[in-house]
Specification:
183 residues, mainly alpha, Membrane-bound Lytic Murein Transglycosylase D, Chain A
């Protein structure tokens, strides 16, 4: 086919020399029009690419922000798990300590309920447990004058009156106090 073009051009130049410049001008004009159209189309494509580049940059920024947020959420989740474990450990320790305290308290309560052995007339311990008689009060651990007065319905002054020389600071569990006669 490339061999036909020179032959065709040679035929045109021999037969009609006046048509060749006109054809060249027409072909040049068409080429200019096509070139202009191509430039306009290329300009539109470039503008469209710039707009897409701007949108792509925004999408990449959003993606970066989303990745940062996801990393922060993962870290927060790990932190919450760690706090949950440490809180559970602390609650377990607290529960164990409360259980130990309850056991100790139960032992103390049981010890307070046991009767106190009093010294017999020879001064030796091991006699019968002290028992309060009529108009008597048996001192318990932690008793004070006010507590005894409330428990017996007597006033502190009346209890002191029937127990001369009583020292409230030296009360001992198992000690007997006389109570005033009820009116």
């Amino acid at each position: 086919m490339s061999g036909l073009l020179p032959l065709f051009m040679d035929t045109i130049s021999r037969e009609n020399n006046s048509m060749l410049p006109v054809a060249a001008v027409i072909l040049g004009g068409v080429a200019l029009l096509l070139g202009g159209y191509a430039v306009i189309s290329l300009s539109k494509v470039n503008k469209s690419l710039e707009a897409h580049d701007t949108k792509l940059a925004r999408v990449e920024a959003v993606e970066s922000t989303a990745n940062s947020a996801a990393a922060a959420a993962d870290k927060a989740a790990r932190d919450v798990q760690g706090l949950t474990r440490s809180t559970q450990d602390a609650v377990t320790q607290l529960a164990n300590e409360l259980s130990n305290q309850r056991t100790s308290l139960t032992k103390l309560e049981d010890a307070a309920k046991k009767p106190v052995a009093v010294a017999d007339k020879g001064g030796k311990k091991g006699g019968e447990p002290a028992v309060a008689g009529a108009n008597e009060y048996l001192v318990k651990a932690g008793d004070t004058g006010t507590k005894i007065a409330k428990a017996t319905g007597a006033s502190v002054a009346d209890i002191e009156a029937v127990n001369p020389g009583l020292d409230w600071r030296k009360l001992k569990p198992g000690q007997k106090l006389k109570l005033p006669a009820k009116k």
